[in-house]
Amino acid sequence: MEQVVVIGSGPAGLTAAIYAARAGMDPLVIEGMESGGQLVQTSHVANFPGFGLEAKGADIIAAMRDHAEKAGARFKMDVVERVDFSGGEKKLFTMMGDEIETKTVIVATGAGVAKTGKPGEAQYWGRGISACLTCDGAFYAGKRAGVVGDGPAAQGAKKYLERLGAEVPAVIPVANLKAFAGDGKRLTAIETDVATVPVDGAFLVTARVPQTKFLEGALAMDAGGHVIADGTKTSVAGVFAAGDCARPSHKQAVIAAGDGAIAALEARAHVALQMACQNMLLTAQGSI
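User: That's the sequence. What structure does it adopt?
Assistant: Structure tokens below.
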């Protein structure tokens, strides 16, 4: 029986792990299959306190994870596929086939890129289509990399790829995207409603959506899939939510970290209250 399980390993999850470990809760962090969340994919972070104006997201995450491990947090690379919050104890069921029981849960799964759902996307995802500029951008030096997205973020992605030496033949709004085409092995072109753009790769720069599908039916959520929380308290006692998965606005790493700290403190208070109630019950039974 765990005292607290943290689902997610971005700034919210890692901060929650640090605070829970310092509180003696021996936290278990289910970090997903790609640890670090969205921040690890960010090449330039200028507003996270203490890291200066030219920090890399991956460096911030590495420092936070090291802190959490040294504080006593445990990490498991796995994905929670479904949950059961109907009883007093919370049950988590993972992709690896584990069933984990815990007194409290901190959901810190963040928000991921919104896929377009266009033909060819699933087939060529990871085989020419990527959402991580810092992970894969350098592979396109001297090659053609298209950008699919809208607004300043898409234009910023174009400039970033060009600094890496890539040719960016087009920035394609999602509304104009028709399909992704390839040779069966790799992406070779992006089809729009007016032209076919030959490319060696493509980067999605689209809206971010909360990673909460596995919680459907277990927690109250809004129309956009964000967990509804009062502070960090959710609709189920003992389950807390921190960071972008519960924040429709203000999706900032430092705010997510603050949420993580609050969620851990709330989880510790919940466990302490449970223990106090149990002790009172035992005392009352002993006096009968």
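The two ends are 30 Å apart (CA to CA).
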